[in-house]
Amino acid sequence: MKTGKPLVLIVDDNPTNIDLLVNTLEDDFQLGIAINGPKALDYVEKYLPDLILLDIMMPGMDGYEVCTRLKSVTRTKDVPVIFITAMSEVGDKTQGFELGAVDYITKPFHTMEVKARVQTHLSLKKMREELSDQNVILEQRVEEKTAELQEMLKAIVRAMAMMVEVRDPYTAGHQHRVAQLACAIAKKMGLSNDQINAIRFAGILHDIGKIRIPTSILTRSGKLLDAEFDMIRIHPEVGYDLLKNIPSPWPFAQIVLQHHELLDGSGYPKHLTSDQIMQESKILTVADVTEAQSSYRPYRPALGIDFALEDIQKNRGKLYDPDAVDACLELFQQDNFKFE
Ligand SMILES: [Fe+2]
Ligand SMILES: [Fe+2]
């Protein structure tokens, strides 16, 4: 139906009015004609015209009803409707505009006026459509750029994680595995996507503060001295300082700062207690101790996953968040969770 010219639907029950409008518009537009409300709705459904000239007073379904129905359907709601009617009272006009009509022409009308108004509203419709297309293109570009930036952020985060792991080859991959487990726990506990993303980044970088600790301590075999442990205990704060100024929608610096805090206040650096520790950090702690205990460390052999799970169970509610512990146990014991 649609060729080059815009398609205008004339809806009127009066043949004389229809003839007059056809004579006025036929040179510039393709025309459709409907002689009552139901036929108009059928026509719009079938051909989706560019504009509708709609008589108000028609037997059966009047123009207001036709307009209301068109505006209630997504596909037809943006087709401009111009009411044409003999009624000229303000009340009628108000009702027409309230229903979503774009204009109002009063009979008897001047043919040039009808033509000019139709053309104006078709131009406006075209501009609206172009603007909407432009918006879609812009939204796509924003999405592409956001995806690019996220990839870049991931690469930078990986590089930062590697910086500490290069100095401490015994814990290479530790942060990545902790992030993997912490995200799985968070998911099981029903945390939001935002919280899970925060935990992922915090997990991958949680030990970045160890960059300040001499390699000799990180890689030394045998039991560590108290002074050496004191040295290691600064890493959450160093990590926080390194990360705190990175603009991010997620509080991952704060999560890193609290990843060695324990429910009973015996953790570090601030000896926070249960209700002062972020839920994300509590989850990260459970993932961290589980991974760390199950893996080899220079100062002790790998204790194994069974030992690690026994430990978190034993300290469930005392040192470690009970929900995070339960989720972690379920992951290993029922869901067959494996570190990558
Ligand atoms: Fe740590
Ligand atoms: Fe760790």
Would you give an account of this structure?
- The chain has two domains: about 5-135, Rossmann fold, CATH 3.40.50; about 170-335, Hypothetical protein af1432 (Orthogonal Bundle), CATH 1.10.3210.10.
- Helix 6 packs across helix 12 (about 280-295), helix 6 (about 175-190) packs across helix 14 and helix 12 (about 280-295) runs antiparallel to helix 13.
- The protein contains 14 helices and five strands.
- The chain has helices at about 15-25, 35-45, 65-70, 90-100, 110-165, 175-190, 195-205, 215-220, 225-230, 235-245, 250-255, 280-295, 305-315, 320-335; strands spanning about 5-10, 30-35, 50-55, 80-85, 105.
- The protein has a five-stranded parallel beta sheet with strand order 2-1-3-4-5, with helices on both faces.
- By secondary structure, the protein is an alpha/beta fold.
- Helix 1 links the parallel strand 1 and strand 2.
- The structure holds fe (ii) ion (FE2) (2 copies).
- One fe (ii) ion binds near residues 206 and 235.
